[in-house]
Structure formats: structure tokens, C-alpha cells
User: Fold this.
Amino acid sequence: MDSHYLEEALSRTRRVWVDDLKLGEVGLSTEERHYLEQVLRVADGTVVEVFDGQGKVGKAKLNLGSNTMQVSELEARVDSGPEIRLYQAIPKGDRWEWTIEKATELGVTAIYPILTERTVVQVPPGKLAVKLERWQKIATAAARQSHAALTPSVEAPIQLKDALLSEGRKYFGDFEGESASDFELGDSDAPIELFVGPEGGFSAAELHLLNANATGIYLGPQVLRAETAAIAFITWAQLKTGW
Assistant:
């Protein structure tokens, strides 16, 4: 195998997130250094791919002695198609963090936990900042692994009624909704917003609110767990927009 091709392929597997990405010397965070040294086992002078989660991607040479990298290439890499935003009630256990990871891998641009009548998991206000930081780190790690140019923002929990005030095209899973295979999203650039309910489903009042503000989509006869529904819904939206 050509040595240049091999180095190019290896650099893509060694991916580092940089907050303030620019040409020239940039700092290497403690977390990213740990990832490079302890997980990837890279050596000083290794060329890695760098990204900022906002669309900039480049190449950099490591200088582990000074905790820096020398960025020599930089380009803007923007995903085509409309934004896809996930609005989901937080499921129990570790399934919410799993959902953040997989939704990021599938290319969503924002993730909003929604509060519904049957939402079981509630985040105490005093722990919200810590939770948001952890959720954002999970999204960043998933973007790094999946080579996404953009890292979705993971937002603070929002009431369902307030989430429905946003400007996007809104859809929710509905056994009486439009056929997922037949429904067409059209060519609009407006964000696509996908609503996934809690494990107990949306209440009758919430379904009334959703029907007044969003389009129900029939995803199939199976009753899906919340995290499975999210992945199925995102995949449907991506395929419908020409993924």
C-alpha cells in the first residue's frame, strides 16, 4: 500500500476535537491528550484530523511536549440538506445517553429533552449544568468517532408545548399517521423536527396538541421503545432528504 495513502487513512482514524480551531498552533486539551495517548496510543509528531464540531475540519501535527498541535490544513465541511432536530422525552437508565450517541452518529443538529405528562426522568435544577456538560461530551465523542463535521447541541429540557412553538417542520410517531414510506418531506430548507414521546406514550391532551401543530407519521405496526423510535425516525428523515 502507498505510504501516503496509508498515512492519510490513519490520520482519519486519529481524530481530535478542538474548540478554537484555526491555522497554526492550537492547544490540546487534557481530555483529548488522554484520548490520544491512552486510547489511540499515538506518538509525538503524529498527524491527526482535527474538527471543531461547527463545520471546520483540518490536519494537525502533534507536539505532546508542549500540549499543542500545528494545524496546517483547514476546510469548511458543511452537510447538505435541512437540519434535523430530535425532541425526545428522556428514557430511563442509560438509554438517553445511548440515544444522544446514536442520534449524533446519524447526523442530527440539535437534541432537546422534552418534558411531558408521562416523563419519568426529571433532572433536578441543581444537577442540570453537570448533566448538560456530560451529554455534550457524549455528543462530541460520537461526532469524533463517526467523522461528523457538526456536533449537535444538547439543550436543556423544554416543555412539549414550548417545543411546538419552534419554526421547523414537525413530525411525531402516530399509529394513525401518514405512511412513512409514502409521505414526502418536499424541498423546503426549514428544519425537520422529530418528536418522540416517553415510554408510556403521549397523553390524550398531548396528542391533541401534536395533531394541531405537527404531522403524525406511521413508522410501522411494532411498538418501539423510545430510543428505537428515535433512531428509526431519524433514519427515515435522512433517507427522505436524500441521505
